[in-house]
Amino acid sequence: MAADCLFCKMVSGAIQPNKVYEDNDVLAFRDINPQAPVHVLVIPKRHIATVNDLTDADAALVGKLTLIAKKIAAELGVADSGYRLVSNCNADAGQSVWHIHLHLLGGRGLQWPPG
Ligand code: 5GP
Ligand code: ZN
Asked: How confident is the model at residue 2 (pLDDT cuts 50, 70, 90)?
């Protein structure tokens, strides 16, 4: 855990997000500033600052994040209509919280290419 990390505080319970999923390794909660009718953040409980910091040892964890996002998409009713999984890395992508997360966005048509 990183003491000054917002998402680590959600993992510890110091801040309580609007949870949609939790297990030993992963937490998922509603984004506070949703960009679509469904906007959920799926995070590992372990602090990893950026996608650049992932190692080969994290392969199973990264796969798990996607599989859990898939399940949440089905539970929230956007599996068939469609959704987007996005992970922003560093400044050009607009990363603003330095603890990796998958954005699950759905419930409306999403433009491509992204801005
Ligand atoms: P990034 O910009 O790093 O890709 O995504 C960070 C996301 O975290 C943003 O979509 C932002 O709205 C969300 N966020 C920031 N602060 C909070 C918070 O306190 N609670 C929740 N639930 N989401 C947050
Ligand atoms: Zn963290």
From this structure: confident
C-alpha–C-alpha distance, residues 106 and 55, integer Å = 29
- 31: containing domain: 6-106
- Tell me the best of 16, 20, 33 to mutate to test the pocket of ligand 1, counting ligand atoms within 8 Å of each CB and taking the most: 33
Protein residue whose Cα sits closest to atom 13 of ligand 1: 31
Ligand 1 close to Cβ of residue 17 (< 6 A):
yes
The type of residue at 70 is K
Q: Quick check: 2 and 48 in contact, CB under 8 A?
A: no
Ligand nearest to the CA of residue 45, numbered in listed order: 2
**Global model pTM greater than 0.85:** yes
Decide if 85 is inside a domain: yes
Count: domains in the chain = 1
30: CATH: 3.30.428.10
Examine residue 30 and state whether it is found in any structural domain, yes or no: yes
Tell me the percentage of the chain whose pLDDT exceeds 90: 97
